SsuA/THI5-like domain-containing protein (Cytobacillus kochii), 332 residues
Amino acid sequence: MKKWLKWSFMLLCISVLLIPLAACGKEDVTKIRIGEVTRSLFYAPQYVAIEKGFFKEEGLDVTLTTTAGGDKTMTALLSDSIDIALVGSETSIYVQAQGANDPVINFAQLTQTDGTFLVAREDIQDFTWDMVKKSTFLGQRKGGMPQMAGEYTLKKHDIDPHADLELIQNIDFANIAPAFSSGTGEFVQLFEPTASVFEKEGIGHIVASFGEESGHLPYTAYMTKDSFINENEETVEKFTRAIYKAQQWVDEHSAEETAKIITKYFDNTDLEILTMSIDRYKSQGSFATDPILEKEEWENLQNIMDEAGELPARVDYETLVNTSIAEKVIKE
């Protein structure tokens, strides 16, 4: 009887010690809801951050949702359905133009170039941009960053996208690749890995990069409401630190190593294509190696939007970009 009481007392003591520790562990974990504008190989560092446990190291439990489109992503953020959005920085400018009381702030950049490639139906060995003139060009959605970067590049090469070719823009993003595959268009603007898949299958041939042509810009960035940063600065800092770890990891490791880690996010794409696509993005500097959104990139973004006739009004860099958290993380 005494032995039983002794063991009962010991178990009670252990329980008393463990309960606070368990409670403390739960309190230290912060849930964060991310909304990505699309599922894209272009966002490889984000998936690396999840799979390598960089968010968990920071005490963050992230839930990733694909919100399918800039408008839907912004609606989800403004309605508090998500905490942080991964989307093109132009969307924060559109929200600002509507007179938002709680501005959407860009606090960490993920990609720093356009992610699309010009794919030709024919195998053109010595491509020049004037070959696009008088062709049927299957472009991206009007007002979206891919289309604006595409138009900017065409104009850079003295091609009027609305006069010198037949520009098709009335096809949904998800149906652009199938439309080209089924015979629509002589040229198409595509993201990876679709561009490489088409090349491998002989459907089309990559002849140029819009990312290389349009220069550095905040193509996709993490953003949230100004109020969220003010109320959760430590959480945003932890989030940014996790992303920075992933950016550095991707930069320091091979394309194949990255591909192997994120393959679960692209079930229908084989490892060879994933590796080839990641290598192509890395070689042209599409993945930002740190989360700081530079002022020069912000201005280039607005110049491209202005050239496309989609810029509501110029917005000062300091109004919608906060680099203080990213700078702090990098200096650590």
Q: What stands out?
A: Strands lie at 30-36, 60-66, 84-87, 104-111, 116-120, 136-138, 166-168, 187-191, 205-209, 220-225. Residues 30-113+218-331 form a domain with the D-Maltodextrin-Binding Protein; domain 2 fold (CATH 3.40.190.10). Confidence is low (pLDDT under 50) at residues 1-26. The chain is about 50% helix and 15% strand.
